[in-house]
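Possible regression after last week's pipeline update?

I re-ran a chain I had predicted before the update to compare outputs. Posting the input and the new output here so someone can diff against the archived version. Not blocking, just want to make sure nothing changed silently.
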Amino acid sequence: MRKIITIIVAWFEQQAFGVCDSIGRFLGIKGTTIRLYFIYLSFFTFGSPVIIYFVLAFFKENMKYFFPKSQPRKRLWDL
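New output (post-update):
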């Protein structure tokens, strides 16, 4: 039974967008702690953190379109 639960958890974490892990790396907190806070806040605020999670996931997946890596600026002498 424990093996099945481990497989389900691993599958869910692969399918999730990685928003909690990204936020955790940025803030220096474990991703599981942030996931728990999202779950608790969802119960207390009737699901509004879920909307925030999907918005963050959208920006994380499409960041390359919003902030493309620009070419290095040319110096005056390179013209």
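Follow-up from reviewer: compared with the archived run. The helical segments are 2-15, 19-27, 31-44, 48-61, 63-66. Marking as no regression found.
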